[in-house]
Amino acid sequence: MKRREFLELSAAAAAAAALPFATRSSADEGDAPRFLFVVEGNGFEPASALCDSAREAMDEIAGAPIARSRWWYNRYRNDAPVELATPDLATSRYMSETFGSAFPLEPLAEEGVADDATVLLGLSSRIVGGGHSGFHGALSSTRTIGGRPGGPTIDALLAALPHVRGETPFDAFRVGVGGGSAIDFGTCAYDRARPAPLILDVASAYEFAYGAFTEGDARLAFERRDRMLRFAATDLAAAERTFSGNARELAKLGTYGASIASLLESQERLRGMDVVAPPAPATDLSPIPRFEALVDLATSTLIDGLAPVAVVGSGTGGAFGLHYSTISATARHDMQHGSGGDPALLDAIRQVNRAQVGAIARAARRLRDAGMLERTVIVWIGDNGEQHHSTASEFPVLLLGGSALGLRRGGRTVIYPGIGSPGHRQVSNLWNTLGYAAGHALDDFGGEEGDLRSAFGPLDELLTR
């Protein structure tokens, strides 16, 4: 990791003062909940998650066939959730001539995890604003204004729970595929106005997680980080002893010092662990292989007990111009804009989604093989809603796992009432549900108010109770 990247990560860690290492629990790591959030930029369209049987139900709900529609947030006519057993969830061939040859959810069947999957339709989160990107809003149910998050994202809140965090070295492992920057501060947040970083460089992400357990460059990076942290701690201590400024600035130094101390403790925990590092991923990867490598790496951190929560972003935080060269010569932004009149571009979008679901399905299988899928929840969600220029009126969601945490097993589609219905639910209700799964009520999570606000509470259709 380069010095500038290290300093940016350290500065972001200072924002995590609300996550002090002293609050960790001695909870049994074998029973602790685990979470993997995969966040897609550029719009996650409902049509990418609709199988034959769910489409037939949606036609009835809408009062007419949805036909070539790719999103339909203004056509829901149900006032109560519709729960569907959808055994064809991953194998639909319906409308193939319309939507091309790619079937996004098919990898769920290929990896044998379709019965662990549930698709949610109808949830909104208008507070995030929609547009090209909701930035931190998708995971926080708040509005990002001027690059400043309006509240903590769900990954940070769950990672801060002592019985979730346990004795893991890191609170969360956050990575992503983005533009030219090495770090993205536009997707996750520790708290209001306190963004959390996603590492966008594959080599840096690997070094950060597994440098302590390897040789060569990754190990050198780990030792270099340790030296820099110790130097920074000594330098800060000296600055505090001679500081002559006001109390506010002194408190800021104390915040940095606490964060550095927390990072140093993580270093020591890593030194004390017996972990076999996975092979280092290739670094000269185009966006899809890079995404696949990062999902695989994030999954490894959960399995190896390095972090209780992982986030993988793809084109999030405003980086919506990714160029998926292995799929199309057209950049993703232009792919979305041209897809209305070009079936080949629409098919390319579905191929991107299929590749993403493939990485998620392999992660689910790895977790299942490690005996962890039942206590791990995987969430695939868009960062802005139902389309590229979104209204944030619908956020389709793919869930996997979590049966030991009280979530019902999948192979299902749940269609919630749309905006305007008294039975409508929002993404904040989903985050509330994950809080319950982690043993912590999040009844006041997010910032939705007034007419846009559903009654807070978990989504009962997802719970076994």
Structure keywords:
alpha/beta, two-stranded antiparallel ribbon, 36% helix, Alkaline Phosphatase, subunit A
Describe the structure.
- By secondary structure, the chain is of the alpha/beta class.
- The chain contains 14 helices and ten strands.
- The longest helix has 27 residues, at 343-369.
- Residues 13-27 have low confidence and may be disordered.
Itemize the secondary structure elements and their pairings.
Layout: H1 3-14, E1 34-40, H2 52-62, E2 82-85, H3 96-99, H4 106-110, E3 117-121, H5 137-140, H6 154-159, H7 162-165, E4 173-177, E5 183-191, E6 194-199, H8 202-210, H9 217-242, H10 247-271, H11 287-303, E7 309-314, H12 332-338, H13 343-369, E8 376-382, E9 397-401, E10 412-415, H14 427-437
Helix pairs in contact: 1-10, 8-9, 8-11, 9-10, 11-13, 12-13
How are the strands of the largest sheet arranged? Answer: 2-10-3-9-8-1-7-4
Strand content: 5-15%
Helix content: 25-40%
Biggest sheet features: 8 strands, mixed
Question: How many strands in all?
Answer: 10
Radius of gyration: 22 Å
